[in-house]
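Late entry, evening session. Most of the bench is empty. Finally got around to the prediction I had been postponing all week. Sequence below, unchanged from the version circulated by S.P.
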Amino acid sequence: MGVIPFREALAAGPLLFDGAMGSLLYERGVFLTRSFDELNLSQPEIVAQVHRDYLDAGADIIETNTFGANRIALARHGFADKTVEINRAGVLLARGAVGDQAYVAGSVGPTGVSWGNASAAERTRAREALAEQLDVLTSVPGGVDLLLLETFPELAELEAAIELARKIAPTLPIIAQAMFTPEGRIGTLEPGAVADRLVEAGADVIGANCGAGPPELYEVATKMVGHGRPVAIQPNAGFPRMIEGRTIYVANPEHFGVFARRLLQIGVAMVGGCCGTTPEHIRRMAGAVRMRSGRDLGARVTGAGAAGAAPLSPPPLAGRSGLAGKLAAGKFVVSVELSAPPGISATKAVEAAAMLKASGKIDAVNIADGPRASARMANLALCAAVQQHAGLETILHVCCRDRNLIGLVSHLLGAHALGLRNLVIITGDPPKLGDYPFATPVYDLDSIGLLRMAERLNRGLDPAGKALGPPGQREQTSFLMATGAEPGAVDYERELERLHEKKAAGAELVMTQPIYDPHVLERFLDDTKDLGLPILVGLLPLASARNAEFLNAEVPGMRVPDEIRARMARAPEGAPARAEGVRIAREALDAVKHRVQGAYIMPPFGRYQSALDILEGL
């Protein structure tokens, strides 16, 4: 891949394999009795199209169509004499289909020799066949980026393949995937023991593929993670099940997207599909991968711009917007979250913005982009209406969930044309959390990728490296780019790591989630001093004791300390409880106002006066 070496990409975040080749070729008219590997010679275009389809679906790694292309396996179809040609063509087809937009993995499968019962001579013949194939796959100039040893049901043969690969191509990364039984074993060995054997044999990445569906390989993965190497998992499309008299494949594409998120959450580094999976399965998994990774689709095409237009210097921060000017001058700023209506009238929201503007205490209102995956008036339209009719500056939330790469570029260019200069860039809640769980999430980019894209627009370049503006007339955007942070994140170290990545991608302002525990906030402020970014502390005034209990129990990363919940419990319901919530928020802001550059207030249930009440006496 032209952008970053494979090992660096693996260290930066999860990667996505492609899916099945054989079952997809069968769906496209190739008989099961054919040698799928020989199609590299007789029907190269159908193979190349499969590669392109997986690339378009979002795969980071494309496997060569050479799984059964060792001499012993090819002999069963009468093609042993074409071993070299088939493997060489497999590499050239994969590389030609993806160029430098994805990594190419040289696929090597088992010979079919039963090592447990084979004679010494048969094992020698198998080793020679594996060595021949590995030698051809790795000898094509500019060909494979890594080797994938996959679907080995016998551990001894997989260990032999690793040993040969290490000798033949000592610098190439080696991924070793065993095929477990549906019960999660290879012979008598459990996944943890298999992992240790593969690590000892010299694999760079260990894992499992084929043989079972997502639930079974999830259990295998839980026992392979933590054995000193990244783990790669590629399940089949599952097993057919009889449910109320119907034969149903439970592991549909949507299920694969959920499965991918679960795997990544336990620390699996690479995911993909095996038998029965399609580009649609991979497309659903791509969203989960991008949510956990700093890479994005835009990174694939940045190489195209290397020889194109030169980047401009970004506009000075102070001149980008009124809010940016205040931040650059070191002033304390306040933003209030304004809710977009669920209907077609913006009147109440604009009136609320006018009220906040008249107070003289508010510098901007920020408007979320479909919060909690809800369908509301487009925040782009409401921001434009507020700035035009209320005269108050806005901060536009931009979510990665609902627009593909092209849509995001258009959205930002349109926002700039409407005079919107302040952005909060977020990945966005998945549709499963909202009222439309069947909606399709996009996630071509995550927040880091979108920050990177916006930063390039500020330098006058689109994601492909082309200059903004008509021929001969360079243009550039002038966005202030904010990002979110969760001081109470469950995986706190990862939150800090991603915050540093966000700064590197272009973030210029941090807006935190609401915090009620002063110790959590102090820790966060201490740990982010080296960032050198202004921070707006998030404040959400509690509305009732029930509200406090809900936030503490149900919202990840938002802990409400016992003493705060006790204060809310002592306050009578209604106005007295809301007043107590305001006092708690005011105390929290007063305690840290000397350490932050502003406040980001989220009034609950549209009670915007509470934001002004928090600021009383500040």
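Two things to note before I forget:
The longest strand covers residues 146-152.
The chain has a mean pLDDT of 91.
Will write this up properly tomorrow.
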